[in-house]
């Protein structure tokens, strides 16, 4: 079964609204989670590193005020896309780092902004 | 700047052919190199390589890492149409961060 659960798997939202994507580690605690974005026919691009109990570390070029990351517990990180625009439509995927340095991916979330 | 480069970007072969996918990297604080297969959703894990010269094998797939020359190859023998996918190479830093290559899109024709 899934080790990392991501929800929702698909979401459609109106331009200007905000949408939240959740990433949960199941049966283990993840102090570090990562958020990636993948545009069609492109590879995964790291957006930010989410650390439990502290601020996320964003990659260069990623707007931290637009992509809000909260990692309030050891099993949950959330990514909120604020004031979404059509160009934010993408595949968003999280991963969690398990003790022993094993990485597990969530199932991914397809965001469509109309 | 850390980077991972894959080649070729796309490849079309016929069933039964053997393919070799390449991945070169320049990453500080290297921990491991990983290969993933991506179809329609999340990438699925294929291999993790940490040591040079040790081939990892899983069925028709195999992979090897050269830490001196900073590259890895993924071989697929006797390809099948089900092998059609995007193959992603990623290098993991010691923080757990993955840096992905552009991916190789493989199409296997019947």
Outline the structure in words.
The complex is a heterodimer of chains A (about 110) and B (about 110). Chain A has no helices and 11 strands. By secondary structure, chain A is mainly β. In chain A, strand 4 and strand 5 (about 45-50) form a beta hairpin. Chain A is globular, with a radius of gyration of 13 Å. Chain B is an all-beta fold. Chain B has strands at about 5, 10-15, 20-25, 30-40, 45-50, 55-60, 60-65, 70-75, 85-95, 100, 105-110. In chain B, the strands form 2 sheets. In chain B, strands 2, 4, 5, 9, 10 and 11 form a 6-stranded mixed β-sheet that branches. In chain B, strands 1-3-8-7-6 form a 5-stranded antiparallel β-sheet, with no helix packed on it. At the A-B interface, strand 4, strand 5 and strand 9 of A face strand 4, strand 9 and strand 10 of B.
Instruction: Give the integer mean of the pLDDT values of chain B.
Output: 94
Rg of chain A from C-alpha positions? 13 Å
**How many helices of chain A does DSSP assign?**
0
Poorly predicted regions of chain A are none
Order of helices and strands of chain A: EEEEEEEEEEE
Low-confidence stretches of chain B: none
Structural class of chain B: mainly beta
Order of helices and strands of chain B: EEEEEEEEEEE
Q: Sheet with the most strands of chain A?
A: 7 strands, mixed
How widely separated are the two ends of chain B?
A: 41 Å
Quantity of strands of chain A, as a count: 11
Query: What structural category characterises the helix and strand content of chain A?
Result: mainly beta
Query: What is the share of helical residues of chain B?
Result: under 10%
How many extended strands of chain B? 11
Name the average pLDDT of chain A: 90
Strand content of chain B: over 45%
How many angstroms does the end-to-end distance of chain A come to?
33 Å
- Biggest interface: chains and residue counts? A-B, 19 and 19 residues
Oligomer: heterodimer
């Amino acid at each position: 079964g899934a080790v990392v659960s991501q929800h929702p798997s698909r979401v459609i939202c109106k331009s200007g609204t905000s949408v939240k994507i959740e990433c949960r580690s199941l049966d283990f605690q993840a102090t570090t989670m990562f958020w990636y974005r993948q545009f069609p026919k492109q590879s995964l691009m790291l957006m930010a590193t989410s650390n439990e109990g502290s601020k996320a570390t964003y990659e260069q070029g990623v707007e931290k005020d637009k992509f809000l990351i909260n990692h309030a517990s050891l099993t949950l990180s959330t990514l909120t896309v604020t004031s979404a625009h059509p160009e934010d439509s993408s595949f968003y995927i999280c991963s969690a780092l398990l003790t022993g340095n094993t990485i597990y991916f969530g199932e991914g979330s397809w965001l469509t902004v109309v | 700047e850390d980077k991972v480069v894959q080649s070729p970007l796309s490849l079309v072969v016929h069933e039964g052919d053997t393919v070799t996918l390449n991945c070169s990297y320049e990453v500080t604080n290297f921990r491991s190199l990983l290969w993933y297969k991506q179809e329609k959703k999340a990438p699925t894990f294929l291999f993790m390589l940490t040591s040079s010269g040790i081939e990892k094998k899983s069925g028709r797939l195999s992979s090897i890492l050269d830490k001196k020359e900073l590259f890895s190859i993924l071989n697929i023998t006797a390809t099948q149409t089900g092998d059609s996918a995007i193959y992603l190479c990623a290098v993991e830093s010691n923080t757990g961060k993955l840096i992905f290559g552009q991916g190789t899109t493989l199409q296997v024709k019947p």
